[in-house]
Amino acid sequence: MREDINAFEMVSHQGKNCQKRMLILVFALAISLSYSACRADNSMPNSASSKMPTEISTKQANSMKINIKVKDQVVTATLIDSKTTQDFVSLLPLTLTMNDLFGREKFAHLPRAISEEGERTKTYEVGDVIYWSPGSDLAIFYRHDGQEIPDPGIIAIGKIDAGIKTFNVPGSVEVTVELVQSQ
Hints:
The protein is α+β, with helices and mostly antiparallel strands. It has helices at residues 2-39, 53-58, 83-89; strands spanning 65-70, 73-79, 94-101, 105-109, 120-121, 128-132, 137-141, 154-160, 173-179.
């Protein structure tokens, strides 16, 4: 009989240890989940590598827009919020001769280098307005040839809203770039 009581006490004692372990496990899980939930809003990295190119090229900053005049046509682009874009806007208005490159983009040398603090990428979409820092160039992609951009990559500063075919012409084009003033 005494052995039965000892066995019962032993099982009862093991049950209490199991309950304690389970309680600790549930408590740890609850803390982990609440920590993850608190971090959810602040844990997104500021790196372009974690974003799809589409997200980079369409991120809008206060709906800031530029007009790009080519001959008698005006094309509007929405700018991205970055230090590179802000520095680019400080140069406006600009009149540039944009040369053709690889049958996919028009590019022009800016009067000076601008900030390189924007997000870099090696991919692009048709309509992207970018900064190429090795040459201090502004470029607009009007056709995609499937090629990746070489190092150090490009910094997107905006996206053409409509009318990209305006740039798909042979040779150079003279453009005037101006900030669209808010009404």
